[in-house]
Amino acid sequence: MEMVIAIIGLWIAWITYHKTFDTTEDKNNFLVYFKVTQQLHLEVQVLLQKYISSNNGANHKLYTNMTYKQCLNALKDDFQANYSDKVYVLVKNNKNMSKKMFETLIKNVESKNEALQKLKTQLLYLN
Hints:
The protein has five helices and two strands. By secondary structure, it is mainly alpha-helical. The chain has a two-stranded antiparallel sheet.
């Protein structure tokens, strides 16, 4: 009987550990979402460049305080800083990230993805 209780205790501890500390699933979810957002980022940059080239639109206003060229440059900078393959590899190889860190990263990527989707829709309408 004591052996059964010990086994059940170990099983509960193992499940608790995996639910609390194992970040494999969170990391995999983040990396997939990262790659999707990375691809979307590049698509939007192509659409911006296409608009600029076809309409001589570098100085056209995309937003009240931003031209198409400024937006393209900001996206390129953001991509290099936050969505490049280098960033992907850093996160993929990092073994010390907590569940909370992945939750924050996923929220950030979700937010960026939504913003890029809106911009893409706007650019598709214009092109």
